[in-house]
Specification:
- The chain has 3 helices and 2 strands.
- By secondary structure, it is α+β, with helices and mostly antiparallel strands.
- A two-stranded antiparallel sheet has the order 1-2.
- Helix 1 packs antiparallel against helix 2.
- The longest helix has 23 residues.
- It is elongated.
Length: 217
């Protein structure tokens, strides 16, 4: 008696066996490339670094100015070269750069009842700039230098005497050559032609009155 053939789903059969009419696809260790992702073209690959070289090192030329550093002798556009103090055969004015300039110091004193303030402007200064600064600081000293007891009797008179000495020094300076910066300083009116300077008559008159009363009594 013949044995009937077993059905694949019956117990004892292999449920994963290949079905009739369907051949199994051959397996491979490397899948074929998917469409749309082409392989890298030759000639565009990054060069391999040399042995011992950092493959992630940055190119030293990256971020540098391709036109190189500018020559500092030409300075910035629109600026004229200003003579520096102590360089060259002459000394330039610290305010306008004109030559010649002298070492002149001008002072200013301000009395503020219980406080005082001292200011000064040091050279090198040309004749025009020194004259303008001298007239301005001396006028302000005459107007505001008397308004404290110590300033009235000591510091303001000493400041005015110092500025008188500075005035004799700046008068000896020759007239400067045109400034290389194009700055032209106006010296302004003389001290005695400025109304603000005559405020000094108020405290000085008061001091003279006090001394006169004290001597006569």
């Amino acid at each position: 008696m013949a044995t009937p053939p077993q059905h694949p789903n019956q117990p004892g059969g292999n449920p994963f066996a290949a079905q009739g009419g369907y051949a199994a696809a051959p397996q491979s260790g490397y899948a074929a490339p998917q469409p749309g992702y082409a392989a890298p073209q030759p000639g565009y690959a990054a060069p391999n670094p040399a042995p011992g070289q950092n493959p992630y090192a940055q190119d030293p030329s990256y971020g540098q100015n391709p036109y190189g550093a500018q020559n500092s002798a030409y300075g910035q556009p629109g600026q004229a070269p200003v003579p520096q103090h102590g360089q060259g055969p002459y000394i330039g004015c610290r305010t306008c750069g004109a030559q010649p300039a002298g070492d002149v110091t001008i002072r200013q004193h301000t009395g503020m009842l219980i406080a005082m303030r001292f200011s000064k402007m040091e050279g090198p200064l040309c004749r025009n700039c020194a004259t303008a600064i001298h007239r301005d600081m001396t006028t302000k000293t005459l107007a505001g230098g008397w308004w404290s007891p110590v300033s009235l009797v000591l510091f303001t008179p000493l400041t005015l005497l110092w500025n008188l000495y500075a005035h004799t020094k700046l008068k000896k300076l020759p007239h400067p050559m045109p400034s290389p910066t194009g700055i032209a300083v106006d010296p302004g009116k003389p001290v005695l032609h400025r109304p603000l300077a005559y405020l000094a008559l108020i405290p000085v008159g008061w001091l003279v009155t006090v001394l006169a009363v004290g001597l006569t009594s």
